[in-house]
Amino acid sequence: MMEEMREAARALYHPLVRKWKEAGKTVIGYPCTFVPEEIIHAAGMLPYRMRGIGTTSLSIGDTYFGPVICSLPKCMLQLAGEHAYGFLDGVIITNGCDSMRRLNECWRKAGEDIPGILPGYFHYFGVPHKAASYSYEWYEEEIRELIKSLEEHFGVKVTEKALRKSIRLYNESRRLLQKLDDLRSGTEARMTGEDALTVILAGSAMPREEYTALLKTLLKDLKKALPIDKGRKRLMLVGSSNDDPEFVRLIEDSGALVVADSLCFGSRSYEDLTNEEGDPVASLSRRYLNQCRCPRMFGCYQDRLSLILDKAEKARVDGVILQNIRFCDLHGSENGIFERDLEARGIPCMRMEREYGPLVETGRIRMRIDAFLERIA
Amino acid sequence: MKRETREYHYDWNIWSIIENASRTGDGTRKEYDTLLKLIPHFRDSLDAVIRWGEPGTLLLKLLAQCLNAVLTAHEQGKKVALTTFCFAPPILHAFDVVPLVLEPMTVLGTFILQRGTGEYLDYCCEVGFTETSCSSQRGALGAYLAGLGVRPDFIICDSPGICDTNANSYAFASAYLDIPFYQLNYPPFLTGERASAYHRQDFRGLISFLEEQTGHTLDMDRLRQITAEIRRQSELITEINELQRIVPSPVPGIFNLFLYSGNFLMGGTPGFTDLLESMLKYIRGRAAQGLAGTRSGKERARGFFSYIDHYTTDLRFWTFLENRDISHLGCILSTFWQEDAPYSMEHPDAVYRVEDGDLDAMIDSLAMQVSRMPMIKSIRGPYDAPHMWLDDTLTMTRLLRADFVAYFGTIGCRNTWGMVKPYARDLERAGIPALILYADAFDDRVQSWDAVIDKMQEFLSLRKIGTGRPARRPWR
Lengths: 377, 476
What we know:
Chain B: Belongs to the FldB/FldC dehydratase alpha/beta subunit family. Chain B: This is 2-hydroxyglutaryl-CoA dehydratase, D-component. By secondary structure, chain A is of the alpha/beta class. Chain A has helices at 2-10, 15-22, 37-42, 61-64, 71-81, 98-101, 103-113, 133-154, 160-185, 193-203, 208-224, 245-253, 280-289, 301-314, 329-344, 362-376, and strands at 27-30, 46-49, 90-94, 121-125, 233-239, 256-262, 319-325, 349-354. In chain A, helix 1 crosses helix 10, helix 8 crosses helix 13 (280-289) and helix 10 runs antiparallel to helix 12 (245-253). Chain B is an alpha/beta fold. At the A-B interface, helix 6, helix 7, helix 8 and helix 15 of A face helix 10, strand 4, helix 11, helix 18 and helix 19 of B.
């Protein structure tokens, strides 16, 4: 079962996606957790969170993006340009951050030069940066437009019944992931951070029904598993997107255990549930826009600090790694204030700037992790 | 930060320099020439402004007033709002709140101080900013974070949805200084009832925030006066925009800086109206004589700077253009989208109108004005969407008959660096020579001014711009 999860986490076009496509079904890619997966699922399609794994060059990414841009969307564009995302029937771009939202233009322009890389369905989903009555309404309208465009383009129907069912299913899997968090961050941790990330990543790229079933089995097995945290420093990982289990392994190989996180390829994607009563579109709007966990939601620093403090206390962490991808100023700068405020409360922190992509910086990162672990020993 | 830097309050320091500078034009020419010899570190900046006569002196006097208002606000029982250049300040003036606008404060430090604002930029990184964050805020913000300036009472920014790094600087300042924060957040498109309703509701939220922070309600009479002032200013700006279309352009390049810095700091105040009238008097005179706004009165090329300008020490950017008889036709910062502007005619739904029928109409006018401010209007959506950056640049270059477009930005500008390459390619495809400069407009350490000059000269030379053999343009 973990092997299935690993397969789904380490390849873009993994067997479960292949099977889905072979059944003649549709896959829709999206780059950010502010896109409501439930809508895509309710349309009978596979919501697939895009990543930039496996890139060996940025020749295409650098042609369209400027030089001072986060390497995550550049890697995504590179993969798109190399036809690695050819299995996507559609893509929904959102303004998660400025680097990511420009994937819209760069992909379209690359599509003019490289035939066949632009999916037939290419939709822009505008997400407000604040939670207020009118921004909830805006988000609701965005959802309704998304539904309409999916229906028109693919000739499908998103019924209220299907949407409610999708909401329940996603809530169920999010609850299971929360239980997984308990087993990971409890007094006796039963899962490595590397495996936890693998499980979360798998969920972003496989049919949710199968994923939920796998999660249930995994949880049963984990309850019987032996604790693995003895003698290891318990760390929390915070900051920019990380979809690389090997990065977590690098940290854990130094004698630590990543027992908690605040990452979008991580707990941020399942900590909130959608209200299953009332208008489902309105409920989704509340669920997605209420997430103040990403610094793209400006002016919510204290909320994010409280969340990290609660989690650090609950997981009894010995230290926090505050990392950001270079040019991710939202996370990078906020990490600076987190460092001030967490250290003031006696929680040791390490800030780290890194590049997204293959671990070319392994030596440097390992040295810094070792030094941090020595500090908190 | 060095100890000697810590000995000066940044805003007091800048105010004292500007205050003294503003008096230098009051004496005789002989006195002024003698003074220049005595102030080697300031003379180039000073002369770049004062040599234009009354408008230059007036700008300095008004800047000194603005800075003094910041310094004395708390003594006078007024609140200070830390805000951004792309926020139109009239609503603050209506509440008698003093705007402290970071980017102009950075610009002032960048061109006046011989060492630039490097230490303040770096101080931001010492307290947590990434070194890749936008320099336009960090240049002055470092001083305020270090306690070397007036402590603002609250923060208003209108860049969420437009520019992450701008919004992030203000969000950081709010968290770091632990002061209230209000964001105007913009949707990814400009027109239509849905976007307009969002603009209006968000702006009303701002008014509630200001009422809460100041303890007073919006004064209708004061708002009416400000609205009348905005109307007059919109007319005057439109006339400048029209005159800029003449070949040769009678508008001195640096007047663009006067125009936008005035609007960012004093929009809606009588002082800004006076400045615009003074500038217009000068420009009309040049136009009547058929002279360009350059020092020689000649025009060899016309350039549109499609994003921002370069604010290197001593205002050398403008001097560089003037010495080469290149007319500066404006940048994104000098386009405000008032309804009568020449560039607005083809985009009637993308403009703002000044309405003063009742309180709601006036508030809506202000909301629309803010939503059309530089960058807020054009950088919110895909660059090639209607009313966005490419559309606007094509309109401007056609109307202004620009020979080339140049892009200056900051290393922190994810938003434009995310697509400036395809943007420039689209401009080239439309027949407009386009240059991307990899400099930082506020931090010479990223790329020296000499390197910038080299790039510009190489570009102008290779593209045969200003050589007397104008390149073919679609509109010629």
